[in-house]
Write a structure and sequence with these properties.
Layout (H helix, E strand, L loop, with lengths): L9 E4 L4 E7 L8 E7 L5 E9 L5 E10 L4 E6 L1
Antiparallel strand pairs: 1-6, 2-5, 3-4, 3-6
Length: 79
């Protein structure tokens, strides 16, 4: 089946301060490259944050932990 709509990226927003060392993505195959980008308050893509690779089970280990403050977020785009 072909989906009618698919988001171009995964979004992560946080209500509390966090230190993120890994994220989970549902769907991408292991070995695919992921580009993380900060989200602006209007949910637009901002500055680049990191690049990583999808591992087994959809887990993405970031090259360095990301500090996210309450209300901030980032997008993960599989390329």
């Amino acid at each position: 089946m072909i989906p009618l709509y698919e988001d171009p990226f995964f979004t992560f927003r946080f209500a509390d301060d966090r230190i993120i060392g890994r994220i989970h993505l549902d769907g991408p195959a292991p070995g695919r490259r992921v580009v993380l980008t900060w989200l602006t308050p209007g949910d637009e893509l901002g500055a680049p944050l990191a690049e990583a690779v999808v591992g087994e089970g959809g887990w993405v280990d970031l090259p360095a932990p990301v500090v996210v403050r309450a209300g901030e977020g980032f997008a993960a785009r599989v390329v």
